[in-house]
Amino acid sequence: MKTTKAAKSTPVKPVAKKAAKKAAKKAAQKATAASGKATGVAKKATATIKKAAAASKKAAPAKTAASKKAAPAKTAASKKAAPAKTVAKKAAPAQAAPKKAVVESHAALVRRARRINRELAEVYPYAHPELDFENPFQLVIATVLSAQTTDLRVNQTTPGLFAKYPTPEDLAAANPEEVEEILRPTGFFRAKTKSVIGLSKALAEDFGGEVPGRLEDLVKLPGVGRKTAFVVLGNAFGRPGITVDTHFGRLVRRWQWTDETDPDKVEAAVGALFPKSEWTMLSHHVIFHGRRICHARKPACGACPIAPLCPAYGEGETDPEKARKLLKYEKGGFPGQRLNPPQSYLDAGGIPAPPLGAG
């Protein structure tokens, strides 16, 4: 029985081996085919990469050429633009930054304006008219002569004039050529001679040789406008008036009390900020400050006692040491405008001006 079973099972092993070999062969063939396909894909990918590289190489010279062509154009444009930029840089300092207006109510403006006047009154307690005079006639003549010249030059000239022509009647009858020679140092001497002789004739003929004390009468005199009239009324008759000279007009605009330039409009605008009783001394305070500290071209901002109240602070020198060198101040030893100043000015350290031809 055992022998029979063994004989039957023997042929099975060769069949199994053959089947296994066939399966292995097919699997190998499939693997080879798959690897071939993968290789083909890889080759295609490599070819694509090569094509892209070639294309980039072709594009590179074009890009370089284009950039090279563009570069000179850019350089040329920048070269052309450069001088304009340089000019703009040079021109920039000439363009002053716009001034910011002080935004304040009318009540705040009145308070600030009056505080400035109080501060100036403490700085210049000896403020006074800077024309030498002994009577209303001398003051009105001196004020007419002060047009387009300094008070100092007028004060140096009038002693000789009044010594020769002490009254309106004397000057009215004077020889114009002789008067011209005396007034020559004041400039515009022919026109001024005509004015003072005509003024003297009007005083002698219409007012009995006396200077009138009313504004409406004063402005009728030859060479006398509102400014001159207020100088005479305020300083010879004690009647309040605002004197709008170049210093006064410049400062009140810097302080933004008004932006008016016409003297009559400046007078009205500033007069509305102060009691009438303060007008005459206000004029002296402002004019003194304009001559001594708040100069036209280079104000001494760094040495100004009212700097915190001034909207124009910074227009001038702000360094304290440099600003102090710009002061033209009695207490710094500078002579005043008058040959015969009031005692209060001398007590404050003021020095009288020298006579004509001295020094």
Inertia-based shape: elongated
How much of the sequence is in beta strands? under 5%
**Mean pLDDT rating:** 82
Secondary-structure element order, as H and E? Answer: HHHHHHHHHHHHHHH
Uncertain segments: 1-16, 58-99
Fraction of helical residues: 55-70%
Major β-sheet annotation? none
- Structural class, from helix and strand content? mainly alpha
What's the tally of helices? 15
Number of strands: 0
Distance between the termini: 167 Å
Please state the CA-atom Rg, rounded to the nearest Å: 50 Å
Features of the shown structure:
359 residues, 15 helices, 61% helix, disordered N terminus
Summed up, what is this model?
By secondary structure, the protein is mostly helical. It has 15 helices and no strands.
Descriptive report:
The protein has 15 helices and no strands. The chain is mainly α. Helix 4 packs across helix 5 (151-164), helix 4 packs antiparallel against helix 10 (226-236) and helix 7 crosses helix 8 (189-206). The model is unreliable at 1-16 and 58-99 (pLDDT under 50).
Task: Lay out the secondary structure.
Layout (H helix, E strand, L loop, with lengths): L1 H8 L2 H80 L14 H18 L12 H10 L5 H14 L3 H5 L3 H8 L5 H18 L8 H4 L7 H11 L9 H9 L8 H9 L7 H14 L27 H5 L18 H5 L12
Helix pairs in contact: 4-5, 4-10, 7-8, 11-13
